[in-house]
Amino acid sequence: MEHNNIINHPQFVKEGKQVSFKPETLKKVQDLMKRYPEGRQKSALLPVLHIAQEELGGYLSVDVMDYVASLLGLQPIEVYEVATFYSMFYLDKMGKYVIEVCQTGPCALSGGEQILAHLQEMLEIMPGETTSDGIFTLKTVECLGSCGTAPVLQVNTDFHEKLTPGKVDKLLEDLREYAKHDKSDDSTWVEKFC
Amino acid sequence: MGGKVLLANVDIPGIRGFDTYRAHGGYIAVEKALREMTATEVSLEVHKSGLRGRGGAGFPTGLKWSFLDRKSDKPRYLVCNADESEPGTFKDRYLMHHLPHLLLEGLIISSYALGVETCYIYIRGEFKYLVGVLEKAIKEAYQHGFLGERILGTGFSLKIYVHPGAGAYICGEETALLESLEGKRGNPRIKPPFPAFKGLYGCPTVVNNVETLAAVGPIINMGGEAYAKIGRGRSTGTKLISACGHINNPGVYEIEMGLPVEDFIYAPRYCGGIANDKLLKAVIPGGSSVPILPADLILNTAQGEQRLMTFESLAEGDFESGTMLGSGGFIVLDEDACIVRNTLNLTRFYRHESCGQCSPCREGTGWMEKVLHRIEHGEGKMSDIDLLVRVAKNIEGNTICPLGDAAAWPVASAIRHFRREFVYHVKFPEVVKNIDHGAIQSDTELLIPDSGTGIKYW
Ligand SMILES: Cc1cc2nc3c(=O)[nH]c(=O)nc-3n(C[C@H](O)[C@H](O)[C@H](O)COP(=O)(O)O)c2cc1C
Ligand code: SF4
Ligand code: FES
């Protein structure tokens, strides 16, 4: 798993910032908590962390995790240990667009490595790094369940499939354009839950 | 229709929405089950159908349902496993994307049969867009009275919730999934107790794969016996196969069980042969966890019989010369694919996804990766090859969950069938180094933290 050693993590400092959800989001979070039986509100942790990451800064700072803990009535450590286990949760500040390139077997057979190499070259960063303008973070991920349209990547969980270096160039161009207009994701976690 | 059961209507425009789905025979199975059948009768039909789990293990669904603790006074749960993270597998995504209501029908009928009032669909977080698709379908089903209180005026009530994971292959393992659903790290539980007795929140629980549950509606419609006539022997019905790798037509196909593997690979309506007119080298037919087989053994068994797409035929020859149907993630490798490189890649995957609870899995996967990395990069020793076999052997069967086996089998089978390639890598390091294998891309991967044992791998 993501063996992030949270204690030594450079970002693992409490800044004491006040964070909170917008009222509409808070309402949604409370609805989500009701999906689980009385006394089992901890079950809402993964969905709520998704929402928190998306709406409260793009990563799970300690302040955000502590806030989520207080909402769900959990000890902060219960949130930290979960946040460090799952690869979709980020503990560091991320770029506006997180480009996650699948590197697993089937994608690798179909040119996934070349796509990653191309991205590294175009963005001049290595996986795990963020461009200096803060627009892109490059990451490698494991099989995205899209091997029939390999090679594949996701930008903030939007799929981009059957990639070629040309398509990657176009994608970067589009994203740079979106960034100018501060356009982010097409739809948010909150919108997904009816 | 071509023998299609699940995907018969998949090409109808708008079939994703309730109205179109309903206009094409949707929810008739729910009406039939709830109005005309008792819960026991529904279970019996599923039993008769011979349906076996489509999540990988092929366990008979009727039998699994019969284990559910019906004496307990606790609530019972049905959990749909939509975690789909096994490399090479993308059939559940296809099914949920095109036919969300087919899955809901299966969930409603199965919940009725099992006496369940709350059902969760645990879907991998990377399928965020599908969370929206499923939630919308659920909302429609509520609006039309197929979910909620007293469905169709019967005494049966049901709620279905979608629950996203957050990126962890291990959460596809059923007990890890339940832990994750409870808001914890996805560490598999020691079995027994099995989920049928102590599952979600310590209550009796059935966990089934998306495709398994989607088959329940059609089974009720046509009857268990009719379903059992499709397919071959104990592999009844149809199976979704997601085909990828070096083939002309990657995609999801519904096949009748018993189709010859050769037809599946070469027929134009399926994979359409090997891409770029190359030759077939090997196939991993059931998702990355199952043993890899060379071309001759995937097409015909060691006894020279034609290999068929069934649980039994693919397993013919056991580990010596057979493999498994698994999840139906059919990965094809052409003559130019490097087996060592592919094995290294998959081993890296399992090392990354090991939850770290058992030392054979945690340490063994890292060790195998290190040795494979060495061989692949022209720095291996001849003794490394048998070392790999030994490490794999020591993982297999010695772990809490089957991820250990899943990591061991690809390595053991690659060496069993392609030892020459490993030997070649060791004997001709200069050649291997010079062939463009592509550099190891994710250099971050090489910075594996100290695993706590004092051994640093890199
Ligand atoms: C490491 C591991 C990963 C698994 N991943 C999945 C998965 O993504 N989807 C799935 O349905 N089953 C998966 N399984 C199998 C489940 O544990 C379980 O057997 C299955 O969901 C039962 O459903 P079925 O009887 O309908 O096949 C996995 C098992 C293991 C050991
Ligand atoms: S076998 Fe591996 S993944 Fe499974 S419980 Fe043990 S350490 Fe975790
Ligand atoms: S291997 Fe890349 S999506 Fe499956």
Write the layout of secondary structure elements.
The complex is a heterodimer of chains A (194) and B (458).
Chain A: H1 23-33, H2 45-55, H3 62-72, H4 76-83, E1 97-102, H5 105-109, H6 112-123, E2 136-141, E3 153-155, E4 158-160, H7 165-180, H8 189-192
Parallel strand pairs in A: 1-2
Antiparallel strand pairs in A: 1-3, 3-4
Chain B: H1 18-23, H2 28-36, H3 39-49, H4 61-67, E1 77-82, H5 91-98, H6 100-114, E2 118-123, H7 128-143, E3 159-164, H8 174-181, E4 205-209, H9 210-214, H10 216-222, H11 224-229, E5 231-232, E6 235-236, E7 238-245, E8 251-256, H12 261-266, E9 280-284, E10 293-294, H13 295-299, H14 311-315, H15 318-321, E11 329-334, H16 339-353, H17 359-376, H18 382-395, H19 403-427, H20 429-434
Bound molecules: flavin mononucleotide, iron/sulfur cluster and FE2/S2 (inorganic) cluster.
